[in-house]
Amino acid sequence: MNDYKSMAQHIAEDWLKAISNSVKNQDINDHMRLVSKHVQVYGIPGINTLNYQQWLYRRHNEFLHNRLFSLQYKIIRIKNDQQRRLGFEVEEQMMATDGKVVIIRKDILLEREEDDNWRVVEEKIHRWQKMEIGQQVNG
C-alpha cells in the first residue's frame, strides 16, 4: 500500500471514528460538523434522497428521544481518492436502544471543504438489512 493510499485509509478511519463518537456522546453539533451542507443520501427505503436539513432533523430526533445507541463501521475498500475527495465502501451497524440493528452496506464520499475539514457530501446505500438482538440496550 502506497503512502497516499495509507493516508486515504487514515482519513476514512478518522472520520468514521468521529461520527461514531458523536453518536455515542449524542452530540448533535459534533455530528453535524462532519456533514456537508450539500450532502445527499440515496437509497434509504421509502425516501428518494435525504439532504442536510433532513439528516439534522432525523439525528436530532434520535438523540432527543434516545433512540440511537451506536454506529459501528467496517471499511470494505477505498474506492477512489483524490486530493479533495475520498470515496469508500463500508458496512455500517446502526444499533437502536430498543435492541434493533440495521446493517447497511453503502458508499460514502467525503470532501475536504474550504475550511479544510473532511465532510460527507454523499452516501449511496446498496443494502439495508434489519435485525433484532431481542433485548433493550441501555446507554
Please give a structural write-up:
It is a single chain. With 139 residues, the chain is an alpha+beta fold. The protein has one domain (3-132): Nuclear Transport Factor 2, Chain: A. The protein has three helices and six strands; from the N terminus they run H-H-E-E-H-E-E-E-E. The chain has helices spanning 3-24, 28-32, 52-64; strands at residues 35-42, 49-50, 68-81, 85-96, 100-112, 118-132. The protein has a six-stranded mixed β-sheet with strand order 2-1-6-5-4-3. The longest helix has 22 residues, at 3-24. The relative contact order is 0.19.
Q: In which range does the helix fraction lie? A: 25-40%
Q: How much is the average pLDDT?
A: 92
- Indicate the proportion of strand residues: over 45%
**By helix and strand content, what is the structural category?**
alpha+beta
List the strand order in the largest sheet. 2-1-6-5-4-3
Top CATH class:
Alpha Beta
Shape: globular
The CATH architecture comes to Roll
Number of strands: 6
- Low-pLDDT residue spans: 135-139
SSE string:
HHEEHEEEE
Query: What's the helix count?
Result: 3
CATH fold group:
Nuclear Transport Factor 2, Chain: A
Number of domains: 1
Largest sheet at a glance?
6 strands, mixed
Compile the SSE list and pairings.
Elements: H1 3-24, H2 28-32, E1 35-42, E2 49-50, H3 52-64, E3 68-81, E4 85-96, E5 100-112, E6 118-132
Parallel strand pairs: 1-6
Antiparallel strand pairs: 1-2, 3-4, 4-5, 5-6
Briefly summarize what is shown.
The protein is α+β, with helices and mostly antiparallel strands and 139 residues long.
